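Person: At home tonight, work slowly through the protein below, taking as long as you need, and write a paragraph about the fold.
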Amino acid sequence: MSKVRVRFAPSPTGGLHLGGVRTALFNYLFAKKHQGDFILRIEDTDQSRYVAGAEQYIIDCLQWCGLNPSEGPVQGGDFVPYRQSERKAIYRRYAEQLVKDGYAYYAFDTAADLEAQREQIPNFRYGHENRQTLRNSLSLSVDEVEQLLKQGSPHVIRIKMPSDETVTFHDLIRGKVSFETNLVDDKVLLKADGMPTYHLAVVVDDYLMKISHVFRGEEWLPSSPVHILLWDYLGWKEQMPEWVHLPLILKPDGHGKLSKRDGDRLGFPVYAMNWKDPKTGDLTKGFREMGFLPEAFVNMLALLGWHGHGDQELYSLAKLVDQFSIDRISKAGAKFDFEKAKWFNHQYIRQASLSELKPQIVTCLKEKGIIVPKDHYLEQVITLVQDRLIFLQDFWDQSFFFFEQPKVYDFAAVKTNWTNHKFDFFEKYIAYLEKSTSANAQELETAFKSIAAEQGLKIGELMLPLRIMLVGGKFGPGVFDIAHTLGAVEMISRIKRAISELTK
């Protein structure tokens, strides 16, 4: 195998769909597996769809996921520039060469001309059946064409698709793939503004950048015959990359490709990170801001259409690189399961180190207006609630009582059984706490049970009131772990305040 060079080539038109990130991931894994190059190329030739800020957003998404390119707009490389809009001058000569060799032609039809055709002919296509009746260099005389070009008449360059032929190629996932050329229209290669379309630019750039393998979504399969022919027509067939068309990521019910609209409807993100539309101001939530760890997001994406050995589900990025192979990519679409995505995140949060979690949790506390406590206290709290977190944003709901006293108490379950005898018990427990300010969780529990036994009270009747006094409700980790973390002074304050509420 010659040197592996793969590229992720997104268009800067908005948020980055998880399908796009998966394409980037599979490119990255294959490159790293074979000690190759992973290239980021920005395909911004469609200036009408260009969105300010989208390129930086793409770069930030890849960085968050740990998929750092070897070459690209930021890193540079031997094949600069890596934005197609900056390569505009390159493409025309190849388009003109195709015209000269008889594989493409000038088309002078106006937008109004084409609209009139669409109104007259249902499912109008510009191709072998009608090109001779339209206004192009195949139907006009040589003199007419030369005159129009001299006058600077607006025109595009279209590929001349052959009729009655079959284009066949080998896909590394799907095997032999064939297309009938009669079913493919004469795609525009170079637009009137001099910008190439995707079809021309992608072939030229893949050739010039020495791309060895093209990983892209299966939605690009219908474009393949045009691209295969261009590789041939430009004389580059021997250098054509291997093709890998990835399966679609499907809606949870398996019916159709997963879209942003599905995420909005079903309540989960489909973008890697928050995306704010600069024109409308609309905010679309991303996996990062929902509280996903990048490692969990990447692991989840890898298993959408690829499987490793056996039943293993948790893979570090390094392990994914080690085990990745194209023959383990499925042909069939992969259903997106948000519950499974949450499971991945839960697993990664559970095994994350304090140093990994702490910076993000500090941010969470600051957003809530909480003065961040000393490291020792914060680490104790994180350790107690870590297993309970599905998302990082769950931290506050699972731990707020460590940072502020309860504002309300759920005493409904204990009020009916409250007695002065229990009041006396808590008075005695407060007296113990005042003398034992450094007691650990085990000592706090032992004393609690001992005083209860002396008073002739059942432990079960006292544990729930204590929990409610400390946190406000029937939730949280072990009550004596909470007690020890809060400390004796804070416990006394909370018990006294709660009793005054309970006995009103």
The first strand starts at residue 5 and ends at 8. Residues 18-33 form the longest helix (16 residues).
